[in-house]
Structure formats: C-alpha cells, structure tokens
Amino acid sequence: MGSCNRAEAVQCLYTKTLDLLSRDDEDWAARLDLLRPLAMVAGFQKTREGQRECAAYAANLAADDAPGALAACRRLIELDAELAAK
Questions:
Q1: Burial level of 71, CB count in 10 A (0-12/13-18/19+)?
Q2: DSSP class of 82
Q3: Which domain of life is it from (predicted)?
Q4: What mean pLDDT is predicted for residues 53-72?
Q5: Contacts of 1 (CB under 8 A, 6+ apart)
Q6: Residue 34 predicted with pLDDT over 70
Q7: 80 and 7 in contact (C-beta within 8 Å)?
Q8: For residue 75, what pLDDT is reported?
Q9: What is the pLDDT of residue 81?
Q10: What residues contact 70, with CB distance under 8 A and at least 6 apart?
Q11: Is the per-residue pLDDT at 71 higher than 50?
Q12: How many Å apart are CA 59 and CA 69, to the nearest integer?
C-alpha cells in the first residue's frame, strides 16, 4: 500500500470500509485502520470536491453513518474515474 496509485488507494478504502461495516462488533481499532487509506486518498485528491468527500467520509464514519461513509467513498471512486478519463 505504500506506493499504490490513486485507484488502488480508493478501492482499498472502499473494501476496508465494507469489511468493517459488515462486522457485528464495535471495533474502534479497525476504524483507526481506515485512517491510512483515507490519508492516501486525501493526498491524491487535489480538488475541493475530492477533499470535501474525504471529509464527509470521515465525518460519516465517526457518526456511525455507514450508508453515508460508503456513499462518500463511492463518490471518491467516481471522481477518480472522471480524472482518469481526462
């Protein structure tokens, strides 16, 4: 994960988020594990919209809003796809 590209970082964030949110137990340590891929995604995001979605993801995750966190993550994936197409 240390030298991954933008698409790998956002896919990793999405996959790890799905894994965490599918668990029945409250595992805050696992939530902290999401900070590394989130930091990588935020570092790749240079647009205001991308930064806003990273912040929305973090806020939704902290608020226990699983659908909101996943929606923000999907929007990040869409933003990356748009940038790759340019």
A1: middle
A2: H
A3: Bacteria
A4: 93
A5: 8, 9, 12, 36, 37, 40
A6: yes
A7: yes
A8: 96
A9: 87
A10: 14, 17, 18, 21
A11: yes
A12: 8
Rg value, the chain, Cα: 12
pTM across the whole model: 0.84
DSSP class of residue 25 equals S
User: In angstroms, rounded to a whole number, what is the distance separating the alpha carbons of residues 32 and 34?
Assistant: 5
Task: Look up residue 72 and give its two tokens.
Answer: 């923000």
Q: Which two tokens stand for residue 46?
A: 């240079």
Structure tokens at 67: 């659908």
Contacts of 61 (CB under 8 A, 6+ apart): 17, 31, 34, 69
**Residue 4: predicted pLDDT:** 61
